[in-house]
Each structure stands twice: as structure tokens, then as C-alpha cells.
Amino acid sequence: MSLHSSSFPQAGLAQQANFPVLRLSGICKHFQGVVALHEVGLTVRAGEVMALIGENGAGKSTLVKTLTGIYQPDAGSMQLDGKAVIFSSPQEAMAAGITAVHQETVMFEELSVAENIYIGRQPQTGFPARIDWARMAADAQQIFARLEVQLPVLAKVRELSVAQRHFVEIARALSQDARVVIMDEPTASLSQREIHELYRIIAQLRAAGTAVIFISHKFDEIFAVADSYTVLRDGHFVAAGALADITEPQLVSLMVGRTIEQVFPKVDIALGKTLLEVSNFCHPTEFRDVSFSVKQGEIVGFYGLVGAGRSEVMQALFGLTPGVSGSIAIDGRQVAIACASDAIKHGIAYVPEDRQHQGAHLSMSIVHNITLPILDGIGCFLWPRRAQETAIARQLSEQLELKASHFTQMVSELSGGNQQKVVLAKWLATKPKVIILDEPTKGIDIGSKAAVHRFISELVTQGLSVILVSSELPEVLGMADRIVVMHQGHIHRVFARAQATPENVVAAASGSSHTSEELACAT
Description:
Rossmann fold, about 25% strand
């Protein structure tokens, strides 16, 4: 398989005339009376990158599932290269040349990288036919070589990082010579270097005549890679056009139906006593000599490049990592945290980055997810208990502006951003003293981000302390009172809010011992 145009199926006259590779018209989809999509249209041409834009709950995920054969539309038409198509299964969509790279990777963890790429269509040899393992590994290696990505094709997927799994998904999509590649938040777990590698891959797809539907909440990415846009809002088509003809504020207004004046509503409050103090925190392989404190009402931001050790420190603080040395004090009293229940008992809550595997029970309802950590504190009698559970879920859902049809809806049916809100609500229900938010707005649109940021500001005004771990520099700069910058497993610099400039923070994250001002003076 090659990334050059000769290796991709040609669209013939459609491609030569730049006709649409894919066109949707009047697509409608309902779930138990709830309108998910209504009269939605979409057009993407050969060699075009079209950005599909909308808030969480706008209908993007439903539309992607309709395109890939998971859902069938209730009304409307779909054309591929000018011919009407209806996909009754994902296999039919893949066979037709439509494939998706999802934000949350779904793979067979005990199988190898090569097996995951060719699952269900392994090359065969001999008679009777058997899997040609050598050819499969060689073909997989060839794909990664052309992508200029180094991955061990015989390694088990469970051994890979989140970023590496995304590249396996991309390789799996490209191995099928797709006519249309849908990329759903593909950069959510990638480093800057890996993001630029992805941009290069997208450019290769564009040059080869492949149509790309690119879904992202990050406008810098959208304007960096996309040629055109389509905006959805509340399941309705809103607008479409060339990105060269529109500005970011205009896109935001189309997405949310209003102008968001302040995405980072930081509230300055008087800080109280030191609530949490971590001293000489060490782990044999992940981090060393980590010491920091958090005051009541303070937001302490943790920033660093991929592999800096931020999440590892927070998981250890929550009792999820064995073999940690050092001390933890809460309200001036030394505490021992050997497991997550100890952390919860002492008033620490942790909202993990991986919401689907670590944060939520997808097969359970919204209300049962939210109240799961506090069942001991809810009455034993059935009906009063249910009423109390519903009241708690309603209060937190309204505060976080959760979009769902009802509280008994399965979390798996929600958009990624709304799943994150359920995880937030779940831990806030424990009424913690310190809440650790690890990438709390990952995969959340700009409107939902503003809602989460407003809620964080509300929490600190109530005396809660927040540790905000984020790879988004504007978020850390906009929300934190202090910024702790980690580099290669240790704390490299700590900046007060007034000292924290993008240049200083990025320089520290890269390992520089000087601020940008000091470097400027030196030169």
C-alpha cells in the first residue's frame, strides 16, 4: 500500500471534474423521539479536507456513525462518487471506501499492531488457505515506513501509548485505500511533534485525492489543515463554505449561536490556608523529588510536554500507583494514601484523562454514574434513595450544562464532551476538598469548555482547591493562580500568574533554566 495517488482508487470523471466524492442531503435520525439529526447536508470533494464543526451534542458523532454504517438514516440520501448508497453495516462502509479514525481508540489489546491493522482481512497463502503472518507484518511495517512513524508491528497493542494507538488507527484506515477518511479528534492525545506528523499525513492524503473529514474543537488545527467547513448545531445544518472566507469568531458564533466573550472566566479570590502539601514525592521510574502545595481556593496548573510525568504524579497522589515514597499532608496533618478509597476519605478527587476506561461506566446510566462514589451516604429505602439520586444528578448536570435526553440514558450514548461532564459530576458529588482535573476539557468544544471553566471558578469561590493538569497552554495561563512546569519527571519551574507568559512556560517545559526575558538579554 502506498500513499501516492497511484495506490488509491480513482474516482474517474468525478475526481477529474472535482465533483463531490461524498454528498449527503436531508439526513434525519431520531432516537426514542429525540431528534439527533434533522435535514443535515454535507459535501466533500476529492483532495479536500473538510472540517466538521459543532459543539458536543451538535450531532457530529451521530453523523459519523451514519456515514460509517453503524446507524442508518431515517430520511435523506447519501451519494458516493455520484451513486446512491446505503450502508447496513460498518463492513459495507469500509468496503465502499469510507473509514474513520476515532478519538477513543477501539482495538484488540492482546493482538499485535499488525493484527489490529488487518483484522478481518488478513493476507492468506497456501491451500487450504492460512494467514500469511510474515506478509502481514511486512505490509504493516511498510505502511509505518511510508508514514515515517516508528512502531513495532509485532508488539501487543496493550503495550502502546495512547498516541501510538492513534497511529495504528490511522494505519488501519490507510491500509484500506479509503476514498473518505474521517478523523474524529485525532490529535487529542498527541504531542506537538506527533501533531505535525499527522498534518504531514493529511497533506499526503489530500495530494493523493482522498477526501478527509476532519473533526476538531481546536481552531488552530482546523485553520492549519482544512480547506472548507460544515457547521452543525443541535442536530441541524447551520452553514458551510471555504475557511478562507470566514474568521474564528464567526465560526464560534455559528457553532454556539452566540458570541462567547470570555472562555477563561478567572475569578480572583483571597486564598486561604494551605490545604494540600506534597513533599519529596518519588517513584523509581516515573518522577522524582516532586514537592508542591495548594491553598484553599487556589487553582494550581500543571503543565509539561508529553512524558513529563504530570499525570503520573496525580495518579500516585490519588493512590493508584504503588511504590511511591514521600509525604502528603492535608489541613496540616500527615495522611497515608495507599489506595483510591483512602484519597476519597481524605477529601481528594481525581478526574482522569481517559474518561472511557478510567472515568465512567459506559454501560450504566448518568444518574448511577454520578452517585456511584456516594452510595454509602444515600438512604437505604428504594424510592427515597432514587429521588435523592435523581436530585443530585439534576443539580450537578444543570451546573455543568450536561446535554442528555434523560438521567437514565446510558453514558455510552452521550457525546465525548458530555461523558466528561458526567465524570466531573461524579467526583464533585463526593464534595472533595481538593479536586484533580487531568485534561478536563480534552475533546470538549469551545462552548462546553467555557461552561467547565465557569464551574471551576465557582468551585474555588466555595473554598475548593483545584489542581488543573492540562496540555493546552491557553487554559493553564487563563485559569491558574500558579503554574508548575514539569520536565522529565521533576518540577522544573514554578511561575506566579503574573510571571507566566507563553514564552516562559514553553521554555521551562522544554527544559530551559532561563525565562524568555533572560534569554533575550543574553543574546
